[in-house]
Amino acid sequence: MIKEKFELTGKNALVVGGRGFLGRRFSSALVEFGAKVYAADLPEPSLAAARDSSAIASNQAIEQFNCDVTDPESVRQMVEQVTATAARIDVLVYSVTAKPKDFYVPFTECSLEGWQLVLRAELDGLFLVTQAVGKIMERAGAGSMIFLSSIYGIVGNDQHIYEGSNLRELYVGDNTSETKQIYSHPVYAAAKGAVISLTRFLAAYWGDNNIRVNCISPGGLAHPGENEEFLKRYSARVPLGRKAGLDDVSGAVVYLASDASSYVTGHNLVVDGGWTAW
After folding, report:
1. What does the alpha-carbon distance between residue 146 and residue 181 come to, in Å, rounded to a whole number?
2. How far apart (Å, rounded) are the C-alpha atoms in residues 115 and 103?
3. Residues 162, 184: contact at Cβ < 8 Å?
C-alpha cells in the first residue's frame, strides 16, 4: 500500500525552470514515477545546466514550453498551452533562480539592478505562476505545489567557505577578477526566506481546496567544474561530509508530489546533509 502511494501515474506535473540544472533532473524523476511532465523555462539553459554532461537525455514524456516567468503575458500563455493539452495540473514544481554578474561581490558593491533581477525571477515569477496554476487546482479541488528554497533561507552564510573558490567563473562566466575571494549575495537569502514564508501562507490559504503547498531547502549541490578547494571547505561544514547530489533532492520532489505526503502541507523539507543541525 505504501509503495503505491509514491506512484505518479495519471498525474500531470508542470516543472517551471525545467531546463535548469535542477529542473531537468526533477522532470526526469517525475517521469520515472509515472507522471506526464510539462517543462517551462527560458529557451537557453543556464551556465550550470549547459555544463552538466551528465544531464539526462530529453524524454518524450516531457513536453517543453518557453516561458519568461517575469512577464505576466508569457506566464499566461504558457499555462494556457499546458492546459490545452492537459485537462488539469496536479503538481507544480517551481525551480527558478537567477544570477546577475555582480552576484559574488561584497554586499556594499551589489547593484540594485542585480538585486531586482533575482527578486523578479524568484518571487515575482513565483507569484505569477502560482496565481495561474492555483486557479486550475482550485477548480480541480486538489493539487501539490513544491517550491525550491535553500538553507540560506534559514541560516546565514558562512562566507569563509568561498575563499579560493571558482564559483564566479562557473556560474556568471566572470574570470576577470583579480581575487578569487567571493561573497554570497544577500538577495539570494532574502528571496529564499520569502519562498518559505509564501509556502506557509499559501498552505493555509488553500487548505480548504485540498491544495498542498510545500518547499524544499537543499544544501549546496555538487556541480561539474567546482574546484577542490571549495568542495573541501564546504564539505567540512556538513555532518555527512559532502555536497548534495541531484538525486538527493529529486527524491524529496517525488515524495512531495505523491500521495505519500498527502497530509504534509506548509512544510519546509530541509535536504542539507545536516548543515543546519549545528
Report:
1. 34
2. 9
3. yes
What count of residues does the chain have? 278
Residue 246 in grid coordinates: 541531484
Which residue do the cell numbers 561581490 mark? Answer: 105
What tens-digit pLDDT sequence spans the chain (278 residues)?
899 999 999 999 999 999 999 999 999 999 999 999 999 999 977 655 565 655 544 566 799 999 999 999 999 999 999 999 998 999 999 999 998 988 888 999 999 999 999 999 999 999 999 999 999 999 999 999 999 999 999 999 888 888 777 877 777 766 655 445 677 789 999 999 999 999 999 999 999 999 999 999 999 999 888 888 889 999 999 999 999 999 999 999 999 999 999 999 999 999 999 999 98
The grid coordinates listed for 182 are 567571493
Rounded to whole angstroms, the Cα distance separating 97 from 117 reads 10
Q: Which three cell numbers stand for residue 18?
A: 525545467
What one-character-per-residue DSSP string does 10-64 give?
A: T-EEEEETTTSHHHHHHHHHHHHTT-EEEEEE-SSPPHHHHH-TTPPPP-TTEEE
Sequence-distant (6+) residues with CB within 8 A of 79 are 14, 129, 132, 133, 136
Strands 36-41 and 143-148: unpaired
Fold of the 2-277 domain? Rossmann fold (3.40.50)
What's the CA gap between 13 and 250, in Å, rounded? 14
Strand partners, 65: 40
Question: Would you list the DSSP string of 210-277?
Answer: TEEEEEEEE-PBP-TT--HHHHHHHHTTSTTSSPBPHHHHHHHHHHHHSGGGTT--S-EEEESTTGGG
Neighbour tally for 126: CB within 10 Å: 23
